[in-house]
Amino acid sequence: MNYLAIFLTSSLMITTSCYKTPITVTTPARAKKTASTGDKEMLTGGKINFNMIYVAGKTVFPLSSDSSNDVVATKVDKAYWVAETEVTYELWYEVKIWADKHGYTFANTGGEGTADKANSENGGVPTTSKNEPVTNINWRDAMVWANALTEWYNAMNKTNYTCAYYIDPKYKTQIRTSTNSETITTSTAGSQDSPYLKEDATGFRLLTRNEWILAAKYMDGKTWAPDKSVSGVGVNMSSTHAVKGLGLVSANALGLYDMLGNVSEWVFDSPNDEDSEFAITSTYRIGYAGVRATIFREPYFATKWLGLRIAKSAE
Question: Taking the C-alpha atoms of 154, 2, 130 and 251 in order, what is their torsion angle to the nearest 10 degrees?
Fold first, then answer.
């Protein structure tokens, strides 16, 4: 059954969880949906397949623990689909080549994994390393590419999913341009640093902070990995930031790969009050490579260990 055809509208710092006691949070009862948390759906565009995992809405989970070690719980209200892996260079390239011909402009071409390979920064034709995550992209690129993915997918499959990010409050014109400008325009609504988010968009987008953390800490929907931990996963990282192919280590309890290590993943949110210890500003954006390995950087920042993972709203 094609769950994505049924649910089409809107709308996460590292250690493993083995050395602490898992946290249990009570989730309110909810009506049964056709799709259940952990269900997998394969999507196809052209010759490329990618999988997405369903996460039910109205899910209460432990965001963190406060100074007294009391659990601070929060809730993701709406169901969503999250990509099984980080976006591969192969998928990035395929979509970008199409987007370049359809009104899109990207600040960075992206590349295959780390910068010690010839094809890591120049955006060239995918090589045998095509299944490594795309890197060397800034937050603006990731956001704009999510729009491009939606339009590309529509063109490949004759669907009519709507884009998530716009330059106007009536959601008439999608954002199709990213730059490397060091002038940050967070205060300008509709700019590349402050896009209008269409809450009921049916297309692809970046995960929110809470969606990422929920997916990373998930164990069984009632029990969660403890504070600043990720549910049982294999580690895919090295001290030299050497990026590996995707899915080479075990998935977490939700079936997601590389939530611990490999590259950091841009999410939509800016840092909030919980991040004040890092003395950063609201003009930064967040990248996750685990619930403890969090980075806060400018939206124009790009490096060999930063990529993205996509999401799609499910209700």
Answer: 140
